[in-house]
Write a structure and sequence with these properties.
Blueprint: H1 5-12, E1 21-26, H2 30-43, H3 53-56, H4 72-75, E2 84-90, H5 96-103, H6 108-113, H7 115-119, E3 124-125, H8 147-162, E4 167-172, H9 189-197, H10 205-215, E5 220-222, H11 232-240, E6 245-250, H12 254-267, E7 271-281, H13 284-289, H14 292-310, H15 316-319, E8 323-330, E9 337-347, E10 353-363, H16 364-384, E11 401-403, H17 416-430
Pfam families: Inos-1-P_synth, NAD_binding_5
EC number: 5.5.1.4
Family: Belongs to the myo-inositol 1-phosphate synthase family.
Length: 446
């Protein structure tokens, strides 16, 4: 990093990562156990953090000829993995070793190596209501007189965890809730808090966790497509408490591929007549999404990607009549090893048709775990940054989500490569470094 006064001043406005960072996870199933087991395996030198931008990614500073590309974790002063402490809530009993065995993502030998660590973490009883997740039955859940009481029980859990850690972050790794539209209860913080007391049906468990975290000044990230924090009430609370929020629904398999391929077609001005996507998966996520109400929440999250990338209103000859279909099918034999299959009908010069087929045999939680890790570390950085902590939505983290949050009236950016540039330029900005514009004249003039 350069030692210019600007760089030093900006970097000085970021509090250092001292002490322990507590990671609080509602929903300690496949993704959470894969994340936590993976972090412990990496800490012990048993594995590499593959897929994690914060751990393996670099960031270019200055011109290409400067050959200055430090690791992101060193450049931005991210919290080291050694300082992470985990806790969370889950509706099923047992410790994290039991949960990881049930999830069947990691092999038995790998789990045995870190078994004592996983056995030492036992999730707390969760706030759960089967109305919002039809296919699951809670076995270890909190009981309260109303939603306000339940949300305050979460705050009590947070307060207890604060005595053991120096900073905290909450990341939702729970199941997809049923589709909810915004109503009056979501419009102001006052209405929302009254709705907690009145048991308003528009307030789901994920919103109660988010409210509890933000009330405690803790950043909140959302790995599922639930409505949760993309409502005015919680965005207001986020700014008020200097507790950052970001987008929703980890961009793992099929949508990750879409946000790579669709920008390529648009960049080359190739037309797309249809894009058919189907998924088969057999984990708990697949079971939950077998319910039509939960599937609609996921479908809306997945369908918005292409429209925002292609901008059919600007390119009607290429994308106005695009037919986009998304299907998810629960298929128990596949477990966490999801198959995402895409058929893409494109057309080129003079309208001649072509086809592309993609068959992505992916591992859902293996792709999601490093995204969750990066979000934990980047949201902690945002909370320590004077420039970021009070703005509410962290749009620079769109890179990680199927459904990025943005300021009102601003359309989301879904192109993975623009998202990557946005993320890295934001890091340069808060560290007082020059932004990289990729101007084609940098090396060819005076």
């Amino acid at each position: 990093m350069s030692n210019t006064p600007a760089a030093n001043t900006e970097a000085a406005s970021i509090k250092p990562h001292t002490g322990k960072l507590g990671v609080m996870i509602p929903g300690m199933g496949a993704v959470a156990t894969t994340l936590i087991a993976g972090v412990e395996a990496i800490r012990r030198g048993l594995a590499k953090p593959i897929g994690s931008l914060t751990q393996m990614g670099t960031i270019r500073l200055g011109k290409r000829t400067d050959n200055n590309s430090p690791l992101i974790k060193d450049f931005a002063g991210l919290c080291p993995l050694e300082d992470l402490v985990f806790t969370g809530w889950d509706i099923f009993g047992g410790n994290l070793y039991d949960a990881a065995k049930t999830a069947q993502v990691l092999d038995r030998d790998q789990l045995e190596e870190i078994r004592p660590f996983l056995e030492s973490i036992e999730p707390m009883p969760a706030v759960f209501d089967q109305h919002y997740v039809k296919r699951l039955t809670g076995q270890k859940i909190k009981v309260g007189k109303n939603k306000c009481d339940l949300a305050n029980q979460i705050r009590n859990d947070i307060a207890e965890f604060k005595t053991k850690t120096d900073r905290q972050i909450m990341i939702w790794c729970g199941s997809t809730e049923i589709y909810l539209e915004q109503t009056a209860v979501h419009q102001t913080l006052e209405a929302f808090e009254k709705g907690l007391v009145d048991n308003d049906p528009g307030i789901s468990p994920s919103m109660m966790y988010a409210w509890a975290a933000l009330k405690e000044g803790i950043p909140f990230a959302n790995g599922a497509p639930n409505l949760t924090v993309d409502i005015p009430a919680l965005q207001e609370l986020s700014k008020k408490m200097n507790a950052p929020i970001c987008g929703k629904d980890f961009k793992t398999g099929q949508t990750f591929i879409k946000t790579v391929l669709a920008p390529a077609f648009k960049t080359r001005m190739l037309g797309v007549a249809g894009w058919y996507s189907t998924n088969i998966l057999g984990n708990r996520d697949g079971e939950v999404l077998d319910d039509p109400e939960s599937f609609k929440t996921k479908e809306v999250s997945k369908l918005g990607v292409l429209e925002h990338i292609f901008q059919p209103e600007l390119h009607p000859d290429l994308y106005k009549d695009l037919y986009h279909k998304v299907r998810i099918n629960y298929y128990p034999p596949r477990g966490d090893n999801k198959e995402g299959w895409d058929n893409i009908d494109i057309f080129g010069w003079l309208g001649y048709p072509m086809q592309i087929k993609v068959d992505f045999l992916c591992r859902d939680s293996i792709l999601a775990a490093p995204l969750a890790l990066d979000l934990v570390l980047f949201m902690d950085l945002a909370a320590r940054s004077e420039k970021l902590k009070g703005i509410g939505i962290q749009e620079w983290l769109s890179f990680y989500f199927k459904d990025p949050d943005t300021a009102p009236g601003v359309y989301p950016e879904h192109d993975l490569f623009i998202q990557s540039m946005k993320l890295k330029n934001t890091l340069r900005h808060i560290m007082g470094q020059d932004l990289i514009t990729h101007l084609g004249l940098d090396y060819y003039g005076d």
